[in-house]
Amino acid sequence: MSTVAPSEVSDAAADALYAREAEAYAAARPASRRLAEEARAHFYGGVPMHWMADWPTPFPLFLKEAEGATLTDADGLRYTDFCLGDTGSMFGHSPAPVARVLAERGARGLTAMLASEDAAAVGRLLAERFGLPVWQVCATATDANRYALRWARAVTGRPVVVVFDGCYHGTVEDAMVRLGPGGETQPRPGLLGQVHDLSRSTRVVPFNDPTALAAALAPGDVAAVLTEPALTNCGMVLPDDGFLDTLRTFTRAAGTLLIVDETHTFSTGPGGYTRTYGLEPDMFVLGKPIAGGLPAAVYGATAEVAARMAEAHARASAAGGHGHSGMGTTLSANPLQLAAMRATLEDVATPAAYSHMIALANRLADGLEAVIARHRQPWTVTRLGARCEFQFRATPPRTGAEAEAAFRPAVERALHLFLLNRGLVITPFHNMTLCSPATTEADVDRLLAAFDDALAQLTTR
């Protein structure tokens, strides 16, 4: 074992590398520059959804097409994609079975607020795969989480929800919170336009902290705990051994529902983290990849919770509220969504696909660890199924606060842009990578070689 002390990359070295890479980026992409300038006239931030400007690039990159694990930009430059729409295209861009049904379904009606012929099959597939018998379909995981929380409050008669510090459940308001310095619930930094006092209806506790969880549940007013099995958006945080079992025990004892959001942790296996590790949620949420990249999401419930949902709906209907539950939209569960979900569940998200994805992710994680060790960086690599992430700390984080404290914005943006200029894309908001069924060993090895080159430039004195 080497006795040489680690040598942390400096922000100054990262800034210098970023400056060089920014010049190269701009010189090679005149079409993206032109499109960015044109779009700025009518789109806030110069892009149709302002997150698209959050990549660490001098100006936004404009996409021409995407297929499998490959992106092609407006200048004809090609990239191997390890971001995959931040999980939305986890199974590759436009998987052939999904593309076929979209073409077939597109000429036969897109939305009618009626169940389509695929509905019964999709319900059966969801129940078989994830273990909960009753399901609903909506447009996004944000919607699914919001509706699951509404149902939880309706069936329990309780007002409060508990989430974990560092969580991410889309943009559902109840989860846009963080733990304050004194242990209080605070709005997430950057949250705009929120007027409701979130601390009145949400409690935040640290992940992997049974004592804090027990205290949050003690008043008896918590309708649900909403959690990912592993935190994934603040920097990946895996659960301690036994923590999820403790969570399940505590929620049952408190009469609190457990809602598991697997929108990102679906990378774990064909049945998500829930089936891989035998979780027993009362409700289950999955968005992004469930329809192969088409906007769609689902939430499921146990038979007991579904019966309580029916009772709550009946009470509301008796009071004159039929049809106005506040959950669902006219575009939810349209025929296009259901056809794409059926194709994904039957022919895309298969055990064989996961075997390929996870093997490559392990190859990538092992390689990242080797490169980091070779350059003596005090960093760690966290992995979960087809997903892995390098983090700027010596040991895996146990809480969201620890994960966020390890952020190195200057180093991150330099590494991301360096990789992008060499035709490699990783998730812009942190250092997450995904391997898809279309990813190859050669793709992984190219990423590792470029990462090695970047660290060599960052650590040269």
Automatic annotation (TrEMBL):
This protein's record includes keyword Transferase: no
Keywords noted in UniProt: Pyridoxal phosphate
Domain of life: Bacteria
Cited InterPro entries: Aminotrans_3, PyrdxlP-dep_Trfase, PyrdxlP-dep_Trfase_major, PyrdxlP-dep_Trfase_small
One Pfam family in the UniProt entry: Aminotran_3
GO molecular function, one term: transaminase activity
Cofactor annotation: pyridoxal 5'-phosphate
Key word Cell inner membrane present: no
Similarity comment text for this entry: Belongs to the class-III pyridoxal-phosphate-dependent aminotransferase family.
Protein name: Glutamate-1-semialdehyde 2,1-aminomutase
